[in-house]
Amino acid sequence: MTRPLILTGIDLPLEPSCGSTIWCSDVYTRLTGHGYDTVFAHLPGSGTWQHGFTATAELEARKAPYGPGFDAYADALTDEVRGLVRDHRPDLIHAQHLGFGLALAFARAAGEVPMVSVAHGTDVMAAAEHEQARAVLNEIVDASVCIIVPSAAMAAEVNRLTDGRHTDRLVVVPWGIPLPSEPTAHPRAGNRLRLVHAGRLDANKSTITAIEALARTTGHELTVIGSGSELETLTRRSAEFDLGDRVVFEPFLPRQDLFKRFGDFDAMLFTTRTLEAYGLVAVEAQAHGLPVLHSDLPGLTATLGAGGLSFPPGDAAALASLIDNLAASPATRQLLHQAAVTNARGYDVTHTAAHLAALSRTATGGAR
């Protein structure tokens, strides 16, 4: 018997460059165990990533952001998706992101194929700020049998942006990660902390808050691992604060290499300013034993639980106080280490895949 096929994808290169592509690889690898095969559509990439998709399809449309060129881009993607639907005859479409061009193309080209859409965070933030993005989000949601969101806070925001028209279609499925067999980071003696910030360096991630907080402390060290549009600004500000070798910048690391580095640190700083869908790397850090000092944001605080300490978003002084207080209390570091590991165990990606498989079976069994 032929296994049911899911057509999905993101109009990004097939690289582990963001949480969305990594999450998709984790989940769809495990969906094969629930009887599904996957075709993942993507923009050109290096082709070296060891992803978990059954098959991939490289797109040809030239990417265009929101603005005058977006409509033509979406039209070109829609033509390509119609070809993919014709050639692969999927049983179900999973539209990743409620606002990216490919998700819009899926909505327009699905025909009689039922579609489940999946919110990731950046899409919802864009829709909250831009009229064009909100219109795209609404079109995708309107075409969806159900809309999967990683948290109740995200569900509330999507519900607001769609004027409450599809409340009954919103389903919260907590994201998950592949859990390590045991933590690799453990509390150390001493009152000087080695801190890490890892991920995309853009304005919303607000890594500048971590830099400014370190400038308000003495002795602690920060390693910033990642790449993005804010790197030049962050490097300049670090020099202006005369932080010297207390702040070190390192390029993006593949996931397994980053995991190996977690044991070098005492805590992670997670400084997102507005909305965070899940905080993939923060939960990974917890699973490896690192407490997380994080912005107090809806959804994120609930996700990180007792294994983290929160501060007002963008408040460098408050973050600096957390760092100093944590450094002064080995007992607190030990308690947070244990709480972080325990909390992360509640986010096993196998549970996420099982939820997604169950929703997929329901979607293919019902009417569009």
How would you briefly describe this protein structure?
By secondary structure, this protein is α/β, with parallel strands linked by helices. The chain has helices at residues 19-31, 70-88, 101-109, 122-129, 131-142, 152-161, 207-215, 231-240, 255-261, 280-287, 300-304, 316-327, 330-344, 349-365; strands at 5-13, 37-43, 55-58, 92-96, 115-118, 146-149, 170-172, 194-198, 221-225, 247-250, 267-270, 292-295, 308-311.
Which structural class best describes the helix and strand composition?
alpha/beta
Number of helices: 14
CATH superfamily of the largest domain: Glycogen Phosphorylase B
- Structurally, the number of domains stands at 2
Total DSSP E strands: 13
Strand order of the largest sheet: 3-2-1-4-5-6-7
Large-scale geometry: globular
Report the β-strand fraction as a percent range.
15-25%
The third-level CATH topology of the largest domain is Rossmann fold
CATH architecture of the largest domain: 3-Layer(aba) Sandwich
Question: How would you state the average pLDDT, rounded?
Answer: 93
**Order of SSEs:** EHEEHEHEHHEHEEHEHEHEHEHEHHH
The unreliable regions are: none
Largest sheet: number of strands, sense, barrel closure:
7 strands, parallel
Per CATH, the class of the largest domain reads: Alpha Beta
Radius of gyration: 21 Å
Distance between termini?
A: 24 Å
